[in-house]
């Protein structure tokens, strides 16, 4: 692995940092999270049109920039520094890779250019708070996480043909998914639903337009306002299958069998999302540490800056080492996801995410402590970093499960890579 960044990668980082420094200050951030979208639509359009951020990792054939996971991770490290509220993560790291991997050529041609341009935002709706399981981050993604044929979850029914039931080949969805990232405003929903009852039980992904009849969406109150979450209710909603199912219904592009393509695609998307999230957490941790270092230089106790005390210096030095280690792990994870080498560890993205989330939590906690009384106030920014750390771990963790599953995937405890369902 070559740890040096290219000139193009450095330019992406520099340009994005300059723009976000001008457009995403503390007051801008607080105003953006209180909009109906949960982010600044004007800034999102600027990021999309001027920098091509939503399509950074998409092929040029579908309107993307044609870069890879490393460039996307670098960009997300910069968005993490300012805790940017945006639909970037669900659109670019979750929905777009799944459409690219599973969609038919018609679906790709219709959806990917709109996603790449930022005109269409996406969200992945997984029922029961099982997002980390669906993405194979904390457990195997084979099983009944989409409903399992029981009441609850999201159920899919294929229409027979004509009449009120709908046209042949059309599907109807009903159920509910909570904690959907960006789900309250996304124009495109990829919905994981259980189909086939008990006889032909399987999980499928469906394409649903956000404004389709029967879709009811409500923004949830979340601890971290910079991560907008929504509840998505589907009331007999028309949907189309992502990809194409074969005659047997078990092994097509969208089908899930014993070695189903959907499971592998979700696991690959999960690995990419883990690398992006790790980079984002590293950016947030680095920014929180920089602010804390600057503050201890001016905060005085006993007639001298607290930064001159050796105990404080040691605490900050330990955090600096932890941040740099997390940054290295995140870069390696992005490189591995991009096919950097055949010998790259399969569990690298999960381990990188675990280390980055743990680092952000440690840095944010120390930032609150070293800022003293002001660090606990609502007006200061320290609590925003702490909430980002806590909520990301709730959504994609916990850390110990990320590490355990990464170890299983890497085969530390045996033939884990095959059992985890992520082998090629």
Automatic annotation (TrEMBL):
Cofactor: FAD
Pfam families found in the cross-reference section: Acyl-CoA_dh_1, Acyl-CoA_dh_N
Domain Acyl-CoA dehydrogenase/oxidase N-terminal residues, every copy: 6-119
Domain Acyl-CoA dehydrogenase/oxidase C-terminal, first and last residues per copy: 275-408
Keyword flag Cytoplasm: no
An annotated Gene Ontology molecular function: oxidoreductase activity
Broadest EC class assigned to this enzyme: oxidoreductase
SUPFAM superfamilies: Acyl-CoA dehydrogenase C-terminal domain-like, Acyl-CoA dehydrogenase NM domain-like
The enzyme's E.C. designation: 1.-.-.-
Keywords from the UniProt entry: FAD, Flavoprotein, Oxidoreductase
Similarity field: Belongs to the acyl-CoA dehydrogenase family.
PANTHER family named in the record: ACYL-COA DEHYDROGENASE, ACYL-COA DEHYDROGENASE FADE28
Protein name: Acyl-CoA dehydrogenase family protein
Organism taxonomic ancestry: Bacteria, Bacillati, Actinomycetota, Actinomycetes, Kitasatosporales
């Amino acid at each position: 692995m070559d740890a040096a960044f290219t000139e193009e990668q450095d330019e992406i980082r520099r340009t994005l940092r300059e723009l976000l420094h001008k457009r995403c200050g503390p007051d801008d951030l607080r105003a953006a999270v209180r909009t109906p979208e949960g982010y600044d639509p004007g800034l999102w359009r600027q990021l999309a049109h001027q920098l091509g951020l939503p399509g950074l990792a998409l092929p040029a054939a579908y309107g993307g920039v044609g870069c890879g996971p490393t460039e996307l991770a670098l960009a997300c490290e910069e968005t993490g520094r300012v805790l940017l509220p945006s639909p970037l993560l669900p659109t670019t790291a979750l929905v777009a890779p799944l459409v690219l991997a599973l969609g038919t050529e018609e679906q790709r041609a219709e959806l990917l250019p709109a996603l790449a341009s930022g005109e269409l935002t996406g969200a992945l709706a997984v029922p029961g708070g099982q997002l980390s399981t669906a993405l194979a981050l904390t457990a195997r993604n084979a099983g009944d996480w989409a409903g399992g044929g029981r009441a609850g979850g999201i159920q899919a029914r294929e229409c027979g043909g004509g009449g009120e039931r709908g046209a042949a080949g059309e599907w109807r969805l009903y159920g509910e998914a909570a904690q959907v990232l960006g789900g309250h405003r996304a124009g495109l929903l990829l919905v994981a639903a259980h189909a086939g009852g008990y006889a032909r039980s399987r999980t499928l992904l469906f394409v649903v337009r956000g404004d389709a009849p029967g879709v009811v969406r409500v923004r949830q109150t979340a601890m971290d306002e910079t991560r907008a979450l929504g509840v998505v209710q589907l009331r007999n909603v028309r949907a189309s299958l992502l990809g194409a199912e074969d005659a047997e219904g078990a092994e097509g592009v969208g089908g899930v069998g014993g070695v189903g393509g959907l499971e592998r695609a979700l696991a690959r998307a999960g690995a990419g999302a883990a690398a992006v999230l790790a980079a984002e957490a590293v950016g947030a941790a680095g920014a929180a540490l920089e602010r804390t270092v600057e503050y201890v230089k001016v905060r005085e106790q006993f007639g001298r800056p607290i930064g001159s005390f050796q105990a404080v210096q040691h605490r900050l030095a330990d955090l600096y080492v932890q941040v740099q280690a997390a940054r290295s792990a995140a870069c390696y994870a992005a490189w591995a996801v991009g096919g950097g080498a055949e010998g790259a560890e399969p569990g690298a993205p999960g381990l990188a995410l675990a280390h980055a989330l743990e680092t952000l939590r440690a840095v944010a906690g120390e930032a609150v402590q070293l800022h003293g009384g002001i660090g606990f106030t609502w007006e200061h920014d320290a609590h925003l970093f702490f909430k980002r750390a806590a909520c990301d771990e709730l959504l994609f963790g916990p850390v110990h499960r990320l590490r355990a599953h990464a170890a299983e995937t890497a085969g530390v405890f045996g033939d884990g890579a095959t059992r985890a369902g992520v082998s090629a």
